[in-house]
Amino acid sequence: MFYNSSNNFEYNDCVSRGACSVSPTISSMQEVMFIVLRQIAYYLVKLKDFNVKKENIEKQIISQIALIDSAKDLAEVQILDAFSKQYNNLVQARKEYLKLCKEKDVQCKDLKNLIKLSPKTNLSAILKRGDREFLQKYKHQSSKYLTDILSAVLKSVCVNLVSLFELNETCTEASDTVISALNLFNQSRLSSEKLTEYIKNLAKCDVELLNLISQYETQNYGEIEETDVLYKTRPHKAIMVSGSNLSDLKSVLETVKDKDIDVYTNGNLLIAHAFPYFKNSKNLKGHFGAGVFNTILDFATFPGAILLTKNESQNIEYLYRGRLFTTDDISPQGIVKIENNDFSPLIESALQAKGFAKGQNRGSEVVGFDETKLKSDLDKISNAERIFIIGPSNLSLKQKDYFEKFFEIMPENTAAISFSYNPELENVIALNLGNDYAILYKVLKIIFEKIPVDSDKLAFFFTKCDVNSLSNIINLHNNGAKNLFISDCPPLVINPAVLRSFTGLFNVNHITNPKNDLALL
Hints:
Elements: H1 13-17, H2 24-48, H3 55-66, H4 76-104, H5 123-136, H6 144-166, H7 172-184, H8 192-221, E1 227-230, E2 238-243, H9 246-256, E3 262-267, H10 276-279, E4 284-287, H11 295-301, E5 305-308, E6 324-326, E7 336-337, H12 344-352, E8 364-367, H13 371-381, E9 386-390, H14 397-409, E10 414-418, E11 428-430, H15 437-450, E12 458-462, H16 469-478, E13 484-486, H17 496-505, E14 508-510, H18 514-520
Parallel strand pairs: 2-3, 2-5, 3-4, 5-6, 6-7, 9-10, 9-12, 10-11, 12-13, 13-14
Antiparallel strand pairs: 1-8
């Protein structure tokens, strides 16, 4: 069984909570924060003209963009603190720019409509400003959907840059492109050509970042292997590490290596078991959970301490608090923040918790891949008239039904490479990479060496819509890929009107039903 097509997919958080879109309050906060960030970018670009680079501020901006939608469970004081830090960056960058202009006897070009916050600014005032900005957002913008697409790709690049930062690495070119693109939003009118150019440049940066992440993960954790991951538990004290941050998981395992505590992964950390470093850890016992969006069910049934790894936007509003911890810079209400990499509060909580009273054998599943075997399998299907590449799943019942029917009616002399659904057919190569895009691109590189990306025989199905989806599609399109299909995106991810515009601009088809889609091909 593939992790993303778990039998419990229909009970994911979005469905069970009935909250699959962004609230007006969150939208207003995001709008104001984005104004602050783009105005900082303006002065960073100006400072760069004086050969002054503010790397620390750049990193803070990139991190804020990556997590700009994660403020839904923060207290008012925490939200105001985040605004205060970024506003201080704005004041500092502007002050330094004005000072340099004076020293160099250069005429300054100060921003008009500079946002102003003060110690007396409260959340209500920020929300009112956000409401006004949201209504005015497209008033003078002729390419409004392109700006939204640019925002989406910008966020994807920032998410991957933050992942790179966590590996103690960086990419100056990508960071500079982010700041330059963010500065575009300070202009009242933007040409479609300029927007499209930046969208393509950012999408290109995204692939380069994923390649770097894969490279450094291999250096730190070893070459990925095909691995059978256990779902069983044993009677013992335990810690669950949830999210996708491998660095945090490594820190926890190093902390408990001499302690009698079991560690389980959750969420996208399933893929950790395919790396030799984690596979060989005596404390890492397996994976706990039924799917990447089952936060409420998984957390409520785990009888130990839980760590939420950095930079992971998770649905935790309705969870029981007291044994939840995080390494994030700003912790949600009721979540204990881990300071200075000191995991002793997490360990103490695990020891005090009841732990697993009984062991449960819940089977296992294979993750990762064997490169030699993959190349051999590709040789077997390379002569097929049509090859369908099916991406990671978004866990919907509709998609499960879709692909069950799809594989039933696949024409003769066709084949598929599936990263989520495994029909166990001879003409289907099934690879479970646990939603890790860096590893996915590593596999795609191997595939495209055998079957070129611009081959007429390839068809791509994007079955999971997330922050990286638009960027991934743009990259394939720019490299000549044909026959692109995308599933519906929840409003939480992208506005339906923007998605319609995007599919038209980049010649992408909507997934409808297997019969019609196969006929279209």
